[in-house]
Amino acid sequence: MIKFMAFFLYLSGILILLKIRKQTDKISNTMEILGKLFGTPEKVKIMRLFLFNPEQAFDMKDATLKTKSALKQVRREISELEKIKLIKKRIFFKDVKKESGNKSEMIKKKTNGWILNRDFHYLSELQGLLINAQLIRHGEILRRLSNVGKLKALIVAGVFIQDPDSRVDILIVGDNLRKFALENAVKTIESEIGREINYTAFETADFLYRLGVCDKLIRDILDYKHEKILDRIGIR
Prior knowledge:
alpha+beta; Arc Repressor Mutant, subunit A; Beta Polymerase, domain 2; 22% strand
């Protein structure tokens, strides 16, 4: 109990620190801040993975792939989280691909993993810190996506502004967008925030056409709560 109390007195101090913007200017992004406070960025990513997906179990392979972390690091962090009872062991079935000659099929395989422990005494406090805090700075999102093409506009909504009703989390507009690079960039962001991102991307000409004809998806994004990170085409 003493360890738990010390841990969450420490978290209370963290909440105050996160509100003091001037003290974080020298740190490049939110993940780095939390990583310094909790020990490692990997621990933050794994905690967010379970907190954002409370009904889903993950085995070691899933956690490693989704957080883009080294297996050795994931194994150590999961062991620590299990010791403080934030997560608990769970046997579950997962879909795996079975190869047979030239054919392949998806089958259910029993596996050992972990799931969020909803009875963890300080769960709400932890969720308040790691979910409701800014997941990733806007400048960091722009940096992650800067190499996917010549960006013209970047808009965030949904999970990034705590609006569960948004149709997408990120809207990307640009020229010569590279699908593979875009997918990799999004997966990297997903690994840092601990959940999948709904995103949509348009070439500039296509986006402007859709904007002109009041495309429903575009209007559903622009007419509701959102934040513009980049706008070089004067979106209204």
